[in-house]
Structures are given as C-alpha cells and as structure tokens.
Amino acid sequence: MGIHYEEYTRASIKAEPLQMWVGKWRIDYLAFAHPGNAHKPPLLVVGGAFQNFTSYKYCVERIYEDFPVILVDLPSLGNNTQIAPDLSMEDLADLLYEFSCRSGLSTVHLMGLSLGSAIASTFAYKYPDATGKLIVAGIVTRPRKSWRMLVDESKRVLGEGRMDEFSQAVVLYLVNYNRIKETGITPTARKLFYRQMKKLSENEQERYVINGSRLLSVEGLLGYPECDTLVTTGEFDSFTLPWENASFAEKCPNAQFVLIKGADHLPQLEKREVSLDLFSTFLRGESIENVEGTRYFRKGESKNLDRRRAERLIPCNSRGYVTSESRIGDQYRFNKPVKVVDINFFGCLIKLDDPGFSMADHARDCTLYLENPELKLDLLVFDYDDQGYLRCLFKHGNIALAEKFTELLKDNQYFLSPKNDGKVHRIYG
C-alpha cells in the first residue's frame, strides 16, 4: 500500500489519526504533503513520551513547505494508548521501518525528539539504505548513573501514588530552574506542564512506567548512523546534557552538532523559530554553520564543553548532617555529621566526618540538613568512596521550595563562587 497524504490545515492536525497494524501492534499517524512536494522523501517525526500531534503543528507548517511530513505515534508513545511493555527501543525502530515499507516509502528522513531520538537513530543505523537525513534532539550514548536514578525515582514515586510530588518532580527534572531567566520558560507554561502530569490517566501512568523502563534498560546504542545527521539540544538542557548529545555526534561519521542558544531540553518548543530554521536548513542540504540563534561545533570542538550543569558553589557554613530512615537489621536510622564541599541547584559533594560507613543501603533515602540557611534537601547518593565523599543529586519534588532554594544560592551571605576553581571537587551529575 502507498501512503495517503492530506494537505495540511490547522484543523487537519487535530483529526483522528490513521492507524496501521503490524501484527498485534498499532501505529498511529498523520501524513501531510503539499501537492508539489508529495514525490519527495518524507520526514518521519517520532516524539517523546507525551507529546501529542498538535504540539508539532509549527514544525509541520515549516517543513511542509519543502517536504512531506508524517507524524508517528508508536505503541505507548505520544497519544498511542496501546500498552507495550515488551517492546524495546530496537523493537520500536523495527516497527517504524515496517511502517515505512508498508507505506511504500523507499527512503525517509527522520526526526527523533527526546525519547524518540533513540528510536530514530536506531532506525538510521539498522536501515541505512532506507534513511535519508537524521535529526535528533536530546540523545545520549549511554545514560549516566545519576540520570538513571532520577528516572527510577520518578517511577517509584508514581507507583506509590504520590501524584502531586511526582508531577512537580517531573517538571523540576525536565525544566532547568537554574536557568529560567535565560530560557524564558514562563510560569504559565510550567504550570500547564505540571497540571498535565498531575492529571495523567491510569493508561498514561502505565505508559510512563513503560517508557521509563525502556530508558533504564538502555546500556548503550546499537551503533552510530552514517547518514547526514544533525544533533542538537538547548544550551541549558539539564536532562540530556549538551556534552552527552555532543558525544553522540562525535561518534557519528557524518554528524554535525549545534546548540540552540537560550533553550532547555525541548528547544523546538522553547526556541521554536530558531529550531525550525535549523531543521529546515539542514533538510534542504544547506549549510547550518551560521543559523541565527545557534552555536555550531566543528568535529572535536565539543570535547571542551563543561560537563557541569551549573557552577559549584562553596557554602559559607559547610557543616551539616545527613540522616536516613533505612532499616538495616533492627536499626532504622542514622545521623552523621558531614561537611558540604560544594553545592548547586542539582546536587552536592559532601564528606562524612566518619569515613568507612557504607552507603549501599542508604543511597535513595538520605536527607541533608543545613543551618544558616536552614535547608532540608532529600538526596540520591550516586557515588561514594572509602574516604567518605558522597556525590549526591537533590530529589526536588516541590516547585515552591526549589524556587526558594534557587534564590538562596544567589545570596552571597550563604554561598560563594570559588575563587580558585581548581580546588573545588566537581561532581558530574
């Protein structure tokens, strides 16, 4: 069968999606083409966990000028309600390939955003003869341990039915609150995101867990595509860090890496016009080195990107203590004095006064207490050593408290920028 394109209108993108069944799996899609471009290879767009088709309307409107556009929701992704816990990223890429074959598409361009980036890149690697160009935004080669712990923690909180905490935590993980001024993500947008997550249906909650498990199961990518590839993300992306995206680009022989200035994890929404200029310029085969609002990296240049998500600060009062409610045998609690070596919005490096204490049973339920300023910060301990150093992430689960913490970090009564950066212990969380 051949693909049937519709001419794009603002109303048509809100229409019920078409469906294709591949065995027992359902693929939802909408296909748009201008009559003058319908003969060209289309752009297949694979989005993230809960992005619906209407969120791509501006992307469709821009790309539609040059290429057909097909929006695809694979099982458990986007608005596809089919529960598919057994489908891996590779399985989803295979389904996408089967969709393109059954649609009579010998060659397709691919765009993978956030979670969809791993699926699109796997397609391009496994099926090079069927791939034209590839765009990925928000991709990592191998998820870092601290990132895995955050995803796993969000699944745990959701599983315990703590919907308000879960919803606020997801917003705080995906939106870089340390750079709100630069990204310009409005309070209204953040509030809408929070409400969307808090109102997840049972089906959506189940799909969140499935997609979280898919992410956690990824130890690394199958391989690196050889097609013309654009790798991008926002310069302030704190979820899939710029250097992680750059690492993927460095491993692809024909990839170009571009940061979108002033953007966070979803640049196509936060800096829409810049993102669309970049995408359409790349797809047309033109140079992307000087697209306004972006920073272009030649091969090797991205290796100098800072791995820190924010500057590490020195607390004026570095003394505090860490407690845990974990049970070990008959003992339910410990209380250990610590020194805070450095700190920022995302986490801290602390040192136990009494090294040699094992953190293996306490990694997920520690709390750091500080005085002057008075702070209580829940921790995920993702690394520790015999000398007593603990590398920690903060489990932000309350937006109001996180905003207050952000302001406190700017107050030099309490926190100072290190005079000699070389003397500061860094953690790459």
UniProtKB/TrEMBL annotation:
Which intervals hold domain AB hydrolase-1?
Answer: 41-271
Q: What Gene Ontology terms describe what this protein does at the molecular function level?
A: hydrolase activity
Q: Which UniProt keywords apply?
A: Hydrolase
**Annotated Pfam families:** Abhydrolase_1
This one is known as Hydrolase
Please spell out the taxonomic lineage of the organism that makes this protein: Bacteria, Pseudomonadati, Pseudomonadota, Gammaproteobacteria, Oceanospirillales
